[in-house]
């Protein structure tokens, strides 16, 4: 089985960036502490993009991602981000080791 990585790019309403950052960091911390299959969860702010946020997530496998995606933390962050993110794109990657 391959590890699964996600690169999630969010276009954020500039007035909401502080709230989105806070929610994303809390989601990352909850995921890492309560989901054994979540191996890495980084919140990144691109240097030249004032309204963009990137999440880099790594899971043990697809099943671990499904636990994350359907878990309590995801429900919380979706509610926290409602109306604050203009668009989201996700790139799914197999980790090459």
Short description:
With 97 residues, the protein is of the alpha+beta class. Helix content is 37%, strand content 35%. The mean pLDDT is 96.
Would you mind describing this structure in some detail?
The chain has 97 residues and is α+β, with helices and mostly antiparallel strands. The chain has a single domain, classed as Alpha-Beta Plaits (2-Layer Sandwich). It has helices at residues 17-34, 62-69, 72-81; strands at 4-12, 38-44, 52-59, 85-94. Strands 2-3-1-4 form a 4-stranded antiparallel sheet. α1 (17-34) runs antiparallel to α3. The longest helix has 18 residues, at 17-34. The chain starts with a strand and ends with a strand. The model has no long low-confidence stretch (mean pLDDT 96).
């Amino acid at each position: 089985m391959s590890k699964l990585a996600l690169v999630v790019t969010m276009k954020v309403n500039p007035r909401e960036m502080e709230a989105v950052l806070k929610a994303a960091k809390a989601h990352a911390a909850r995921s890492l502490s309560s989901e054994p299959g979540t191996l890495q969860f980084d919140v990144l702010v691109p240097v030249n993009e004032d309204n963009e946020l990137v999440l880099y997530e790594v899971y043990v496998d697809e099943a671990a991602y499904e636990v994350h995606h359907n878990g309590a933390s995801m429900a919380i962050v979706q509610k926290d981000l409602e109306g604050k993110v203009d668009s989201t794109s996700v790139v799914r990657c197999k980790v090459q080791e």
